[in-house]
Amino acid sequence: MDDAYCETPAPAPDPAPRDAGPPYADCVLCRKPTEYPESAKGRTLCPVCAWQEAERNACSG
I want to staple 6 with a disulfide (CB 3.0 to 4.6 A). Which of 35, 44, 57, 59 is the partner? Predict the structure, then answer.
């Protein structure tokens, strides 16, 4: 099996500042703003952490 497939990728650069809008929920892992409003229910993840979480779940099975 190729172990390089399951390695954690390098962190992505910080995204550009957001336009004024509703208050955004913080990512539960890295505390950066997400694309979801604060009123969103459930575990909110930023795009980078969501991608890494999906990779970890895919490799854990």
Answer: 59
